[in-house]
Amino acid sequence: MKELTKIVAGLLLSFLFTLTTLAEDAKWTFLGPQKNTPISHATFYQHPKKPNIMLVASRGAKSTKGGENQGMWRSTDAGKTWTLLDSKIGYMINTNDGMNADPNNPDVLYLAQEFTPDFCWSTDAGATWQKKGKAGFKHGIVVQVHPRDSKKLFVGSDDGLWLSKDGGKSWKVQANNGLPPDARGVSNTLNSIEINPQNPDVMYAGFLYADMKTEWGVYKSTDGGKKWSPANNGLPEGQLILDLRTAKTKVKMALPKYGLQYRAIKDLEMDPNNPNTLYAITRQSGIFKTTNGAQDWKLILAPDGPEKKQWSDFSTSITIHPKYSNVLFVGTGGLNVRVSTDAGKTWNALGRMISVKDHGNGLLEATLPNGTVKKGKKSLSPLLGYHYMSSVHKVHVDAKNERKIYVETDQGVFTTTVPDSFSFK
Question: What's the whole-model pTM score?
Answer without folding.
Answer: 0.85
